[in-house]
Amino acid sequence: MLETINQPDINKAPQDLINQLINLYHQGNYEQALKQGTKLLQQYPQAPSVHNIIGTVYSMLGQPEASVHHLRKALKLQPQNPYSNHNLGAVLNDLEQYQEAQKLLERAIQIKPDYAEAHNNLGNLFQKQQQHEKASEYYTKAININPQHYDAYNNLGNSQRNLGNYSEAFKNWITILNKDHGNLNANINLATLYFELGYYDFGIDITNKALNFNPGDLKLLGLLAKGFATIGRHQDAIAILRKIICSFPTSVETLLDLIKLSSFNADIDCRSLYAKFCREMDKLNTIQTPEKEPVEVPMVAFTGFGRSGSLFLHSLIDGHPDVSTLPGYFFKGWFGNGVWKILAPDMTKPEWKKLLAENICNHFEPQFNAKSKKNVIGKPNGNTDWLAKNLGFTTMGPNHSKTLQLDQELFKNHFLQLLQPYKHIDQKTCFELIHKAFDLAYRGNDQQTSVSNNKPIFYHIHNPNIYEKAHFLYHYPKAKVLTIIRHPIQMLESWLLSLLQKANQRKIHQIDYPLLLSIKGRIINTFLFLHNPLNTMPETRGVKLEDIKRNPKKTLPAIANWIGVEDHPALYKCEFLNLQHSRPSANFDNIMGFDNRSIEVPLGRFFNEKEIQILETLFWPFMKTYHYTDMSKQQFQKNMKLIRPWLEEPFQFEEDAYNKICKEDGSLKYANNYKILQQHLINAWETLHNTGTYNHIIPPLQIK
Can you give the three-state secondary structure of 220-266, one letter per residue? Predict the structure, then answer.
């Protein structure tokens, strides 16, 4: 929270007018506060309190650059004002400018040691950088200063949750709820943790009770809908989402949640919902019309089906001279919710272009320097200690001894040159210029070739969430989408075994509770993928990993032709920026390029025979489409009847895990997460029983 406490001004505005602004701010009447504050500044342009209040108002209105402008002015006028130091630090933290934000927050504490909110926001800064222990220290200091600081209790609970100290997390939220039963954030955090830990009934119960105190609250209703969707109660989730839409017809998140579930209810028109989403995006994209009509850049998005070798195929495309692409999937989150607000500078400032270039290199540093252990916007692999290493960019070359390191100044220089004609820029144009600047800086393309030729962009949007994919398609409605496919059961076994190997590295030798939930989640998400309507909205094709590895001379020219480029020798080299690439494998040592070992392993490394029969039946329409099975339709229908009672039973890995875990933790008997996988499998069975197929199977690329 930002502070609007008044301090003596150098050029003091009348106290009663300052108090009016503060009252308007606390009442949430931000537009009126901004109007009156702007008027007041005309009379008292050097009044730091007015700049401070206007800065906080702009922050609440989602205009961070304007907020920073006024807060810097307030700080310049009163450098020793702890509140101005704090407010600017808090806003810069939201913009992920951590280094300056930390200095400002620390200075606020130095000036005012008992400043609880500054300690709290310094905790937020460390929390965002995944330094959870340090974050906990500052939240605890804030609570010690102010035992009624509920935000600090909430934040401390979240940091303890991130450290895996779930009981400590619960204690903090219960402390709040004992004093304030309807506290919104505490209820949301508590319910969310219950959902994360698989105690779905408890999470739903908490959310319903919180709604008694906060009737109609959008966040609580959305959380309840997601809770029902998580456990496979799709109709209950849809009913709540429709209720939200009635009250909040412009809720983008709700529109997307309904699109996700549209396959489970024939009455939902996903294309109509997507059109509404696009109209809401039109309202948000208020950038001025460019000076000249932009040239439409051919766009190919690239996604993977679970663990299917997407980096392998991307490395083949990377060296093609007629394709523009960025190595890896560091820019996966570019179209995420709120990302452009973080990156875009105030374009009224003369130095905005330089600031934009620096923001890009700062927030996506691992793209340019694989030695950087920073994560990137969108967290493509979740919370990870070293993203670039996980993707194989620290072990490149024939001896795995090279690390991808690029001169950022080269990129910035070319990017700034490309920006010269622009008085302003939007998210889409910036994305395209990043690709052009990258080509100019690192691929040896001359200025004229890279800029004048309208090369297709190959964008690796790795496992996008629904907002990222929908927002991307909003900007590129004519985009083609290529998905790499793999035998679904073999893919799942490889994916799940990689989870087990990582667990063994953490000295977890049997399936523990969090690992169990992760395994179930990956199986469930594989089936939900087949229900996703965004699969089939654009022009989409699937290509089999097996075809690429076994028959590259037919498959790769077909991919190139579909992208719109010629066959080229670079397509047969597994390289990024001319450096040999192989991603570290959890299951095979030194597997590289067109090595077939990963696609020749037999089934049964994770699932037993009965479970394989269940999965073969439920995946049948997909496997038939991609020629992974010879099972006839008649046999499929027989198998459907055979497996239906089996779906009520746990899989063997679940049974083994529960037998072990329940002996160690008796409270697990109260969890109902054992039902979740079965319910989603039953939902898949019912879809096949009613329609015979999944409506959003990606059509395969035709290979002659």
Answer: HHHHHHHHHHHCCCHHHHHHHHHHHHHHCCCCHHHHHHHHHHHHHCC
Tokens in use for 431? 């994305």
- Residue whose C-alpha is closest to residue 412's, from 339, 351, 346, 350: 351
- Does the pTM surpass 0.90? The reply is no
pLDDT digits (tens, 9 = 90+) for 398-451: 888 999 999 999 999 999 999 999 999 999 999 999 999 999 999 976 544 444
Q: What distance in Å separates the CA atoms of residue 499 and residue 244, rounded to the nearest whole number?
A: 37
Beta strands in 268-394 (DSSP E): 299-304, 324-325
Go through 400-419 and write b for each residue having 16 or more CB atoms within 10 A of its CB, e for each that does not.
eebebebebeebbebbebbb
Instruction: Report yes or no: 512 and 503 within 8 Å, Cβ to Cβ.
Output: yes
Structure tokens at 398: 């024939």
41: left (phi over 0), alpha (psi -120 to 50) or beta: alpha
Closest of 635, 641, 634, 652 to residue 685, by C-alpha:
641
Residue 90: HSE in the Cβ half-sphere, 13 Å Cα cutoff: 23
Span 50-55, average pLDDT: 88
Indicate the angle between helix axes 270-284 and 252-261, nearest 10 degrees.
160
The encoded tokens of residue 472 equal: 């991307």
Residues 6+ apart with CB under 8 A from 59: 2, 67, 87, 90, 91, 94
- Between the alpha carbon of residue 425 and those of residues 89, 332, 336, 347, 473, the distances in Å are 26, 20, 18, 8, 19
From 519, 115, 496, 470, select the one nearest 258 (Cα to Cα): 470
Task: For CA atoms 675, 681, 684, 689, give the dihedral sign.
Answer: negative
Q: Which of 262, 230, 261, 703 is nearest to 485 (CA)?
A: 703
Is residue 669 classed exposed, middle or buried when 0-12, 13-18 and 19+ CB atoms within 10 A define those classes? Answer: exposed
More reliable by pLDDT, 107 or 286: 107
Partners of residue 304 on adjacent β-strands: 484
* Element holding 533 (H helix, E strand): none
105, two tokens? 């927050």
**Strand ranges (E), 348-503:** 457-460, 480-485
Q: What is the pLDDT of residues 168-182, one digit of tens each?
A: 999 999 999 999 999
